[in-house]
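In full, the data:

***
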Amino acid sequence: MDYGGHERSPNRAQLRELASLLESESWIETVSVFPPNRPESIVLELVEHHYPEEQIAEAYVEIRSYTNGDFHITYIEDHYGERWMCRWDRHESTEYTRDHYHSPPRARHEDGENRDYPREFAAVVAEVVVPWVYDRMGEVWENVDT
C-alpha cells in the first residue's frame, strides 16, 4: 500500500506472533487477527468489566505493524457514540520525530508529541502501551459517581 508517498506492507508474521502472545492476557476479551473491516490489523477487545458501563460501551486496541518498521497502535474507548482515543506511532513525519504519540481525547494530528520508544516493536507494546492501558483502566473509575 502507498501511504503518503512511500510503500509499506503489513508485517503479518509479527502481528500474528503478537496476537498469539496476547490472547491469554486476562485484560483482553478477544483478539481478532486481520478482521475484514481492518485487514492490516490485530484488534484487542478489552474486558468490559474493567470499565464503568454507564460511561464506556467498549474499549479496544488496534495494532498495525509494517515490514519497514512503521507502526500505529490506537487505543479507543466508545463513550456511547463519542470516541475517546490516543495513538502511538512510528513513521516518518515532517512535523514530529519518527516515534511520536497523539494524545487523547481525539488523537488528532495536531495533538502529536515527540517520543522515544524502545527499538523493538514487542517492547513498545509491553513497556509502553500495556502499562498505559492498565493505568487508564484505573483512571476511568476516578470519574465515576459512587
In short: The two ends are 49 Å apart (CA to CA). Confidence is low (pLDDT under 50) at residues 1-5. The chain has two helices and nine strands. The helical segments are 12-22, 121-139.
